[in-house]
Amino acid sequence: MNNVINSVGIIGKTNDPIINNTLPRLVDYLQGKDVKIIVNEAAAKLLTCSTVTPGDFNDIGTLCDIAIVVGGDGSFLTAARNLVDYEIPLIGVNEGRLGFLVDILPDNLFERLDEIFNGNFKIEERSLLHAELFRDGKRISESNAFNDVILHKWNTVRMIEFDTYINDQFVNSQRSDGLIISTPTGSTAYALSGGGPLIHPSMDAILLVPICPHTLSNRPIVVNGESTIVLDIQECFYDHAQMACDGQISIALHDHDKIVITKKNKTLRLIHPADHNHFEILRAKLGWG
């Protein structure tokens, strides 16, 4: 990335007054840096100044050097999926709860931004997943996922029956409440609560974590990041199962649908403070000693 920052995109948490304090202060700070500011349309409505330009993800991706996400991990996931193709680096400001992805606190936001504007930062590349849903041999939906792609039951207590293939090799048939296919980034999310391992975000890997499998020996699996994973739905009792990407994009499944999951061909770049420490974040968020 070019260390000269001339334009900044701001993505604020939608419909949440908690950002009302940080957002105007951030705009004032950036105006002092004499940079062009584009704010997502929902957040722009919270501002009274006329010197910012409202815009959408396409505007921010094509016109800005960096994007600052003000919100929680959910806001960051939305920004990541929508901006990854533009190759614009993201900064996360934590106005949410857990904050694995948004690692700058509002209390020291401007100190950290001073460091970044002075070129004192590190860039980390993170992988995403790309999921395609096929029905009767035709692709009917596709989406990116920064944390995970999840096959899960809903609106029923019945289990789903499906077959799993990795690189055209049959792995198993299972009856369960579903399966989490996770990036290393997502290993601290739903996959963690499902009993999966923590995977360092620098690893080229994909994690598969079963959700309440009927076979107790069915355990999480870590595979190479270049793997192609296919889930062949055998029985899900029409519309009683879904595919979800990052828990934010969902589509109902039918019997004999096929989900194909691969690593996306582009990575997301995150900007961290120069002293960023992944294990320090794990200690703080997970309550380690």
From TrEMBL:
Q: Which HAMAP family does the entry mention?
A: NAD_kinase
Protein name listed in UniProt: NAD kinase
Which GO biological-process labels does this protein carry? NAD+ metabolic process; NADP+ biosynthetic process
Q: Does the keyword Protease apply?
A: no
Q: Which InterPro entries match?
A: ATP-NAD_kinase_N, ATP-NAD_kinase_PpnK-typ_C, NAD/diacylglycerol_kinase_sf, NADK
PANTHER family the UniProt entry points to:
NAD KINASE
As recorded in UniProt, its EC number(s) are 2.7.1.23
For this UniProt record, give its keywords in alphabetical order, as a comma-separated list.
ATP-binding, Kinase, NAD, NADP, Nucleotide-binding, Transferase
Presence of the UniProt keyword Transmembrane helix in the record: no
Organism of this sequence: hydrothermal vent metagenome
Q: Name one GO molecular function term.
A: NAD+ kinase activity
